[in-house]
Predict the 3D structure of the following.
Amino acid sequence: MDDEQLLRYSRQIMLPEIDAAGQLRLAESKVLIIGLGGLGSAASIYLTAAGAGSLVLVDFDKVDLSNLQRQVLHQTRDIGRLKVESAREHLTEINPHVELITIDRALDGDDLLNQVQSADVVVDASDNFRTRFMINEACVRTRTPLVSAAAIRFEAQVSVFDASREDSPCYRCLYGEDAAVEETCTANGVMAPLLGIIGSIQATETMKVIMGIGETLAGKLLLLDVLRMEWHVAGLRKDPDCPVCGDRKKSLDGRTDRQTVSTNA
Ligand SMILES: [Zn+2]
């Protein structure tokens, strides 16, 4: 790190838990962020400002007027632009030291697996179960830590699934085959700052995983209801019958390859 970077990150480096060593680990890290909507906006802004080494930004969508209420990475003048292009411009202005790799296509099959495998942490900021399940499968198969979140109306949840640990539950352990009654912000609405809160928690947990500090949300599900401003923490257990990480997982091999990720969060 040069003098400019030492000063830029000084308020973080002065924390003994982080120190120069933690900042360097962050600077050498690669984070895959899938979805540049409300959650992805907050997560990418903080990871950029805090000094992540490389961010891979995935979204094939374009900025729409109805996004701007909560997707703070994009501005009014960006309407109609690809979200990854808008993101690249604004994140570069925040911190030019961060390498930004943009992907404006749907990730599927080996494409998804390769991107997940090359990342130190995956931030799931997508907005639908199908995509979350696919990202989870790729993370389990490649043993890549996953920082997962979802938000709708006034409620949100966030967790860390650390597939590098044998006893770790995965996202699929939470939801059975018939779970996915699809609800999206587009159809149901969401209070804007809720996405900022939860996306910021995703950035926080990502940094903790990379730096190896504190206790992450691995094995726990953090639930927030902003209408009552109540937080709850639920313990998560690995489901031995989980089709992704449990004893039946072999039946899945090869299946992921024909699915497609969509990221219109
Ligand atoms: Zn599982």
The pocket of zinc ion is lined by residues 169-170, 172-173, 239, 242, 244-246 (CB under 6 Å). Residues 251-265 have pLDDT under 50 and may be disordered. The first strand starts at residue 30 and ends at 34.
